[in-house]
Amino acid sequence: MINFIKNFHNDESGAVTVDWVVLTAAVVGLAVAAFSTIKTNTETVSDSIATTIGAQELGTSTQ
Fold this sequence. Notes:
The protein is an all-alpha fold. It has one domain (1-61). 83% of the residues lie in helices and 0% in strands. It comes from Sediminimonas qiaohouensis.
């Protein structure tokens, strides 16, 4: 029983897994935040472009 407790105490494989889970969660969180910012700014720019194009007068073609 003493050997089991010593081995359990010295085993660090679970700690590495926890580290990777935390790092992966941080990366996913940053990706979501970046995507949200990019999406919002892209919608703003595309709305501005649509407004500008819509305000232009169409020329008549001579065919």
